[in-house]
Amino acid sequence: MDSAIFRNLVRHEFKFKGSYKKSSRSQAAGKWWLAYSLLILLMLTGTATYYAMHNELQINSIWFVTMGFPYMVFFLSYGCMKREWENETYGWWLTMPYPRLELVSAKWLGSYLKVWVGIIAVFFATSAYVLILSMVLPFYTLESVGSFMITGINWLTLVAGLSPIIIALGLLASAVQSSVYRPISPIMWIVFMGGIAMIFQIPDSAISVNMMQQGTGHLKAEWFPYSWELPLFMLLSWILTYALLRLTAYLLEKKLDL
Amino acid sequence: MTSNIVECHQVTKSYGKKKALNELTLSIPSGRITGILGPNGCGKSTFFRTLTGMVRPDSGRIEVAGKAPSWQTNQDIAYLPDRARWYPNHTARMALEWGNSFLPGFSLERALQLADYMDIDLDMRVGGMSRGQEARIMLILCLARDVQMIVLDEPFTGIDVISREAIVASLIDYLEESEQSVLISTHDIQEVEGLFDYSVMMKDGQAIWSGSTDDLRVEYGSLRDVFRKMYMKEWNK
Amino acid sequence: MEEQQVGSLHFQIDFSQPLYEQILDQARSAIAKGEIALGDKMPSVRELAQELRINPNTVMRAYQELERDGLTEKRRGQGTYVTTSPEHVASFRTALAAKYIDSFMEQMESLGLSWDDIEKYIHQKQAAQGGNG
């Protein structure tokens, strides 16, 4: 594997955005999309602020939004390969003279970097928001901000640690749809979606009950509220990630249905 | 010594019940500009896709420069996919830089010359371009490469007359300088029939005639006449 | 079929006939007739291919044949020029004329005509055209 090529591939995937289908082709459509996103963000912040002003916002529960992250990560990586077909660029992508595993891994790493950018942005944006609340509203203390940030790191660690396999699943789902195994797609979708839902349904074994309760504000946040199975679980998922990437590469090399 | 750049022996590829390639047997000499001609759906694109290893035939044997197609052999092939588009978020300059990073034998200098010649605004986003402008950029990505074989799948389809002329003109310039083998598929031979010095006529997944285009002219007249005669059924549909 | 002018040469390309022979024949006759003067520069292969929209390899092959005919010569780094020697053109013209006569005679003989008959036909033709020549 040529490391310069791989670096460039990852950079290409990382910067890759836009679609002929979704945004039509005009820049005006992009502006509308931005306007709507800002509007939704404003409404969310507004609602949260309203409840905060009435001392009814359990700030740590903001982190429950991370439960939606695995799905977002899945669709991010699924779209990352799917778009080669939607944009009709797959001919260029597939005829690049590099190992299929290298192409797939570049998409994987590009997506993972995007996930990290998202995680860091969410962490700092919400932390800044809560910090402002604590300075403006007497109900919230600096201590609660600290607790909020620790809880955030706990939740986001989970997202960061489990994203590798979710990304690999997204890529596999996309590759299966372009392969001769397309008929099994529906079953695969049910299994994957259900599997992702399970991730946050395993508090008894991998995540301590503690952590779920921290979100409701009953307990002071602590570092590493997980049980010992979690690191093991993550490690296993990373090994499985590699296997899934190999499988995806195999599908692209031998089982494409174009 | 004249060798063949492409050898196909009884290559079959089916999609469901339809045979896109039906025991296609064909040799294409190297160093020529070969036109792969025939109506839509005659198997031209499937044939090209088997050359690049994207599609694996159900049976039969294919060799490109003596090797079975795979991602490795694409190192020596510049391929313009059929109905291809370019990444909409790229500017023209980014597209050329993409070529420079990933395509073996790519010359950025040559690509920039071609872009200048074809009147490309390097800072324009591909997403905001006309189909013709986009087609020119994609052609540059193929022509700026120093490789054994160039494979262009329907490069003239769906683009404006000016882009078409720019593409034909730069093809001629390019061909004058190179010794490469060029394969061009098209279902519309108007204005380009003088380009091909070797022709393959395809129909229903088979090569029904192949040979030097001048021999074809002696036998049947102009390529347009050949189209009219050989594909009468398809034209009347 | 439209006539195209490339430099001082005229071409009329018919895509239902072999292209190589058309280019060769039309370039030959242009030189033999003096349409392009002795020592003049021929259009470059690229120029001709571009104007006629044909494969440059075909033009190149025709140019190689012209060179073998002695009608043109390649100057290193400068391109192809019509020969400066009137003798070359004259001898090529003679050779071509001989070739045309041969095929003419062959056709006439295939009609069973004698020398006298042929001569008579030629005189008749000459008279019909107003006696020039």
From TrEMBL, chain A:
Q: Which keywords does this chain's UniProt record carry?
A: Membrane, Transmembrane, Transmembrane helix
Where are the bilayer-spanning segments?
Answer: 32-53, 59-78, 115-140, 152-172, 184-202, 232-252
List the residue ranges forming a coiled coil, or say none.
none
Q: Which domain of life is it from?
A: Bacteria
What protein is this chain from? ABC-2 transporter permease
Q: Please give the organism.
A: Paenibacillus mangrovi
Q: What is the lineage of its organism?
A: Bacteria, Bacillati, Bacillota, Bacilli, Bacillales
UniProtKB/TrEMBL annotation, chain B:
Q: Where is the ABC transporter domain?
A: 6-229
- Gene source species: Paenibacillus mangrovi
What keywords were assigned to this record? ATP-binding, Nucleotide-binding, Transport
Which Pfam families does the protein's record reference?
Answer: ABC_tran (PF00005)
Show the GO MF annotations: ATP binding; ATP hydrolysis activity
InterPro entries with a match to the protein in the record: AAA+_ATPase, ABC_transporter-like_ATP-bd, ABC_Transporter_VariousFunc, P-loop_NTPase
Query: What is the protein name given in its UniProt record?
Result: ABC transporter ATP-binding protein
From TrEMBL, chain C:
Protein name as it appears in the record:
GntR family transcriptional regulator
Query: What UniProt keywords apply to this chain's record, in alphabetical order?
Result: DNA-binding, Transcription, Transcription regulation
| Entry annotated with the keyword Cell inner membrane | no
GO function terms (MF aspect): DNA binding; DNA-binding transcription factor activity
KW Cell inner membrane (keyword) present? no
Organism equals: Paenibacillus mangrovi
- Outline the extent of the HTH gntR-type domain: 17-85
For this protein's source organism, the top of the classification is:
Bacteria, Bacillati, Bacillota, Bacilli, Bacillales
Q: Which InterPro entries match?
A: Tscrpt_reg_HTH_GntR (IPR000524), WH-like_DNA-bd_sf (IPR036388), WH_DNA-bd_sf (IPR036390)
- Pfam families in the cross-refs: GntR
